[in-house]
Design a protein that fits this description.
The complex is a heterodimer of chains A (100) and B (201). Chain A has 100 residues and is mostly helical. Chain A has three helices and no strands. Chain B has seven helices and two strands; from the N terminus they run H-H-H-H-H-E-E-H-H. Chain B has a two-stranded antiparallel sheet. The longest helix of chain B is centred in the first third of the chain and has 26 residues. Chain B is extended. Classes of the chains: A mainly alpha (100), B mainly alpha (201).
Amino acid sequence: MITVTHYVALSFLLFAIGVTGVLIRRNLLTVLMSIELILNAANLNLIAFSRQLGDLNGQVFTVFVITLAAGEAAIGLAIIISLYRLKNSVNLDAVSELKG
Amino acid sequence: MTAPFFFWFFAAIVVFGAVGVVAMRQPVHSALFLLLSFFGIAALFITLRAEFLAAVQILVYAGGIMVLFLFTIMLVNIRRTAGEPFLHRQAGGALLVAFLLLAVVGGTIVASSRTSGLVDAGQPADPAKLSSTTITRTITETVDGKTVKTPVTEQVAGNSQAVAWSLYRDYLLPFEVASVFLLVAMIGAVVLGKRTMERVD
């Protein structure tokens, strides 16, 4: 029997993988993809609890999270492109202007 | 909650895709694994009776965001950096921190489901609540030259209709704010992506 706990555990596993990606990768594009994984984990959690409680509000909030993810991806990729023009690189280490 | 086979099958696909995103050296491969993960999550949405959101997930993520990613990967010409290390210097410590996070929160989830029964308590709610909703509307009609308004309560069926009624009735203001947010994001992306940035001063 699959319960909401299974979905929550899967969602957390996805979140942990996303956090790992944000922390260990040098490539900004992959970091942004890992952030998408984290947002997807949040969506899965919202929908699992919406199913458990029989409440539509979780699904409506997922629509907003997807909207936010779309805007975030667009802005993030635009920043990456302008950063690439500036540095000729998309590595996180290349961006060290604020280093003390 | 649903047939166990579908959960385990699509959960395996989602986790495989997510690990692929983090582990692949080339960003193009990461993007394709991310696509696989998105499709798996859309399938999981269907097992949770969120059919509308499964369609939105495929349209917006697999359709829109993925195309954005692939175009950006083409624009920034990643192949040149293939020889360099693709992991951060602090990867070892970061992996340790991520593993600790996994252990602590994962342990909490498992322990709470065993001891308190909070998460597992009771049967999942009636799925009919997710695929139908009760609405009240006013029918205006003209009888003998006079307008007559009759309030009607009716049931609408289908997950899309239920989500739409909730979105446009209860969450109208957040919906409009979200549209303004998308406009701001669009303008910001256009300004940032312009080839020449003129100085303002």
